[in-house]
TrEMBL record:
Chief subcellular location: membrane
Keywords on record: ATP-binding, Cell membrane, Membrane, Nucleotide-binding, Translocase, Transmembrane, Transmembrane helix
InterPro entries with a match to the protein in the record: ATPase_P-typ_cation-transptr_C (IPR006068), ATPase_P-typ_cation-transptr_N (IPR004014), ATPase_P-typ_cyto_dom_N (IPR023299), ATPase_P-typ_P_site (IPR018303), ATPase_P-typ_TM_dom_sf (IPR023298), ATPase_P-typ_transduc_dom_A_sf (IPR008250), ATPase_P-type_domA (IPR059000), Cation_transp_ATPase_P-type (IPR050510)
Phylogenetic placement of the source organism: Bacteria, Pseudomonadati, Pseudomonadota, Gammaproteobacteria, Pseudomonadales
Membrane topology label: Multi-pass membrane protein
Coiled coil: none
Short name of any one Pfam family annotated for the protein: E1-E2_ATPase
UniProt-annotated location(s): Cell membrane
Transmembrane segments: 72-89, 95-115, 262-282, 294-322, 726-746, 752-779, 800-821, 841-858, 870-891, 903-923
The protein's name in its UniProt record: Haloacid dehalogenase
Length: 946
């Protein structure tokens, strides 16, 4: 085997030029049982995983050093240099305390940023693992589904419609196989595949007996032997595909960065004003005085800008995505979290999403009458009751046996029995329903063991039918074609009908009766499928390409029930309350779709569905009008879904679209939120989607939208908190300098005294920024999160109303801090008896405590902080930690020297707490006024409507 492989390349040379027997022999595999477990392990050890070369993982030390690559860190380092210069000019007396403190703060900020970034990277990596592709292989004689990165050379790769090809493979079987290879060859149309050797070398695009990693199965089925993996594949050779989640900047992150830049410019201007004012108003006698003023300006600029915003934002988004993943909604990109919060329309499939996907044939309709399939579960002792007809003999019995047998043969599902005697379906639930119904017949008449399936014409969304060629070994090896599909489509291929044991021409009356039967089943909310057949002549063959699905004999129609999921109706009610419109788009009969939609209250009683045929008659303008009111679409194709999505988006809607097949991929890509099914969905649909439902459940979509809204709310919370708190720091220094004479911040010579030291500002920034902000990012969602209308895509995260609140809260915070300084200092408006160090410590402490009160209040713009006050234990933990650190900086002698503080008495602590709480009561009053104003607006609106 080793000689057949190219050294170190994990591939076999020119496999498309070799016949199947040679490939099998060289790769030491078996066409029937595949590789053994021992062979797989040996090849994995030798060749490694089937992965493309990703970007090398950066070591932890590089992430740590990256924390210093920030303009604000450069400012802090400038502050260190200024302080060291001042210390040097003072002949190096004592220790350069300020320089040491700033250096420690820079290191502490770097550690915090490092922690946030690595946690975010791990969270995104976990989500990337959840969205890895998978492949079906035959190993040890059994078919299994494995992650594609576990494929090895020599594996038997089983290909089905919708699969993403996991590795380069030489085809050994191909049934009407068509593959999309645009990602590799640029060919936009699906190309046909076969097992024949070209004989001579041909370009990549003409190697019809090969499938390549990263391509997609558009139609048909096949089996291939893996001939190359990882970087040895064709797509690896050109480095065209990278199977990792790309790092991208989301619109929200762009907005936050823009805010940071804007704040930076604003704060720079304010800092210049403060520095110039101080230099003018304070006597500057020495170089050390100048350096101290410059140090204050640098510290003020650093403290005013929330430099941790991007890291905190990424961390909160990543944690939110993990929380969604635990709830069965896997979000592939950070940007999708933002879009989820703005979703205004959900376009959903019916089967398996709104319904349980527990397909059971309830009724049959043939030319001779109606039958009802009864029996419990998959027990083989059930029977078919024929309404108004004999139960054991008669024509309807023969027709139903043929109907169920034909439906089973024209399908790919399997029914197997477990050790405990129960039965399980492998494959499509609808196809499995025929097998289950057969088991409810008496054993002698249900068996299909005498039939050998030799060919298949696969189902496609455009054809809406599939066929199988079988050999009836019990009747002289007669070859038969059985077809199964949508009744309206299948009837177009039929010229005769089965009536008992006879085959008669399908007259207009018989055709009308068959259509009436279909309508009756659809009206009972049953999904309908019809079955037809015809004998084949010796000259007819699938491989010749001649049409076989003609002149069929119509057997009958089955009515399949698939009850709605119990959790869907409440989810639809919640979505409606949130202002989200629900639209059902299905391939089912319009009556079936309308009945299910009525049961789920998607449309009112008597509502109708718009069909694909109806849509074809509408131009773009007419479609734009139709989508405004239509909530159910039936018998749709891929092009219809795409038109519906585009029309809704043109009207300003943010559209979430579900899908599971290859045909859904264009609509999934076009939708704002493409949602693929994790259980029944194809690899192609999962790759095209931005979100994957691990449980295929509609209720999970609504839950994900709730989470998305909650995450955006939490982002607004910590933005409100950080911006207003930093505004408080800026205004404290600015107003303290401007109003120094009023509050007593002047010395005996009349020189202005700074209200806060540079190191105190940096300390506030360290203990009150990151931990409370992250805790608010994990805040439990508010009660009103699903009672508001969807957020418009053009709405700003930080709107005018929030900016007004930020300035108001920052102003009150600054006034409270300066009032404390005035209260404690001698002179000013309120004469006190404390020293400058004590007064400055009091103002410093009030500013810290006020920011912690602000953390409690910032959790909502209008709801009282007393509502669910203790719901966020992480926030309380951050507050307790910050208070403990502030107590330490006030009462620890080493920290007193480092930060220019002194111990406060118990009474002074109480005073500081009361003054700081004034911010809390101010915000509560502001919220009350906002609620009253909102209620007044609502009453006025109701009065106008009445």
């Amino acid at each position: 085997m080793s000689s057949a492989l190219e050294p170190g390349r994990n591939r076999i040379a020119s496999p498309y030029l070799k016949d199947v027997e040679t490939i099998i022999r060289e790769l030491d595999t078996d066409i029937g049982v595949g590789l053994s477990s021992a062979q797989v392990q040996a090849r994995l050890s030798r060749d490694g995983p089937n992965e493309l070369r990703a970007q090398p993982v950066k070591p932890a030390w590089q992430y740590f050093l990256r924390q210093f690559q920030d303009p604000l860190v450069y400012l802090l380092l400038v502050a260190v240099v200024i302080n060291l210069a001042s210390w040097w000019l003072m002949d190096g007396r004592d220790w350069p305390v300020d320089a040491l403190v700033i250096t420690l703060i820079v290191l502490a900020n770097a550690l915090l940023g490092f922690f946030q970034e690595t946690r975010s990277q791990r969270a995104v990596a976990t989500l990337a693992n959840l969205t890895q592709s998978s492949s079906s292989v035959i190993r040890d004689g059994a078919m299994e589904r494995i992650p594609s990165h576990q494929l090895v050379v020599g594996d038997l790769l089983v290909l089905s419609e919708g699969d993403s090809v996991g590795a380069d493979a030489r085809l050994v079987q191909a049934n009407a196989l068509r593959v999309l290879e645009a990602s590799l060859t640029g060919e936009s149309e699906a190309v046909s595949k076969n097992t024949a050797c070209p004989g001579t070398e041909v370009p990549l695009a003409e190697r019809s007996n090969m499938v390549f990693k990263g391509s997609a199965i558009a139609q048909g089925s096949g089996v291939g032997v893996v001939t190359a993996i990882g970087m040895a594949t064709e797509v690896g050779a050109i480095a065209h595909l990278l199977e990792v989640t790309p790092e991208e900047v989301t619109p929200l992150q762009k907005e936050v960065r823009a805010i940071g830049r804007m704040l930076g410019i604003a704060v720079l201007l304010i800092t210049m004003v403060v520095v110039v004012a101080v230099l003018i108003l304070i006597p500057v006698d020495t170089v050390d005085d100048v350096l101290s003023v410059l140090l204050l300006g640098v510290s003020l600029a650093v403290a005013a800008v929330p430099e941790g915003l991007p890291a905190i934002l990424s961390l909160v988004l990543a944690f939110g995505m993990l929380r969604m993943a635990r709830n069965k909604a896997i979000i592939k990109r950070l940007s999708s979290v933002e879009t989820l919060g703005a979703a205004s329309v959900i376009c959903t499939d019916k089967t398996g999403t709104l319904t349980r996907s527990e397909m059971t044939i309830q009724q049959t309709m043939t030319a001779s009458g109606k039958g009802r399939v009864s029996g419990v579960g998959y027990a083989p002792n059930g029977q078919i009751d024929y309404l108004g007809m004999p139960t054991s003999k008669g024509p309807v019995h023969n027709e139903n046996v043929l109907l169920l047998r034909g439906g089973s043969l024209a399908g790919n599902a399997r029914l197997t029995q477990r050790e405990d005697g129960s039965w399980v379906i492998h494959g499509d639930p609808t196809e499995g329903a025929f097998l289950v119904a057969q088991r409810k017949l008496d054993a002698p008449v249900h068996s299909t063991n005498g039939f050998e399936r030799v060919a298949e014409i696969p189902f496609t969304s455009d054809r809406k039918m599939m066929s199988a060629v079988v050999i009836d070994h019990e009747h002289n090896d007669q070859r038969l074609l059985f077809s199964k599909g949508a009744p309206d489509v299948l009837l177009q291929h039929c010229t005769h009908i089965q009536v008992g044991m006879d085959v008669v021409p399908l007259t207009d009356d018989l055709r009308a009766r068959a259509v009436a039967n279909v309508n009756e089943l659809s009206g009972a909310a049953l999904r309908t499928l019809s079955v037809a057949y015809r004998p084949l002549t010796a000259s007819e063959d699938v491989t010749t390409g001649q049409p076989l699905e003609t002149a069929l004999v119509f057997i009958g129609t089955v009515g399949i029930s698939d009850p709605p999921r119990e959790e869907v109706a409440p989810a639809i009610v919640e979505a409606r309350r949130a202002g989200i419109r629900i639209i059902m788009i299905t391939g089912d009969h319009p009556r079936t779709a309308a009945r299910i939609a009525e049961d789920l209250d998607i449309i009112p009683a008597g509502g109708r569905a718009l069909t694909g045929a109806d849509l074809d008659k509408l131009d773009d303008a007419a479609l734009a009008e139709a989508v405004k009111s239509t909530c159910v679409y039936a018998r749709t194709a891929a092009s219809h879904k795409l038109r519906i999505v585009d029309a809704l988006q043109a009207q300003g809607h943010v559209v979430a679209m579900t899908g599971d097949g290859v045909n859904d991929a264009p609509a999934l890509k076009s939708a704002d939120i493409g949602i693929a099914m994790g259980i029944t969905g194809t690899e192609v649909s999962r790759q095209a989607a931005k979100m994957i439902l691990a449980d295929d459940n509609f209720a999970t979509i609504v839950l994900a939208i709730r989470e998305g809204r909650g995450i955006l709310d939490n982002i607004r919370k910590f933005l409100r908190y950080l911006l207003s708190s930093n505004m408080g720091e800026v205004l404290t220094v600015f107003l303290g300098v401007v109003g120094a004479g009023v509050i007593g911040l002047v010395d005996e010579k009349g020189a202005i005294i700074l209200p806060l030291l540079a190191t105190q500002i940096l300390w506030i920034n360290l203990i009150t920024d990151a931990a409370p902000a992250i805790a608010m990012g994990l805040d439990p969602h508010g009660e009103d999160v699903m009672t508001r209308s969807p957020r418009k895509p053009w709405d700003r995260i930080i709107d005018t109303r929030m900016w007004i609140g930020v300035i108001e809260v920052g102003l009150v915070m600054a006034l409270a801090s300066l009032f404390t300084i005035d209260w404690l200092l001698p002179g000013g408006m309120i004469p006190g008896d404390a020293s400058l160090v004590e007064a400055r410590t009091g103002g410093f402490t009030v500013l810290v405590l006020a920011q912690l009160f602000n953390a409690l209040s910032a959790r909502s713009e209008s709801t009282s902080a007393f509502r669910r006050l203790f719901a966020n234990r992480w926030l309380w933990g951050a507050i307790v930690l910050a208070v403990a650190l502030q107590v330490a900086v006030v009462h620890s002698p080493p920290l007193n020297k480092a930060f220019g503080t002194s111990a406060l008495t118990f009474g002074q602590w109480g005073f500081c707490l009361v003054v700081a709480s004034s911010l809390f009561w101010f915000i509560e009053l502001r919220k009350l006024l906002l609620r009253l104003k909102s209620q007044k607006r609502a009453k006025t609106y109701i009065a106008k409507r009445e």
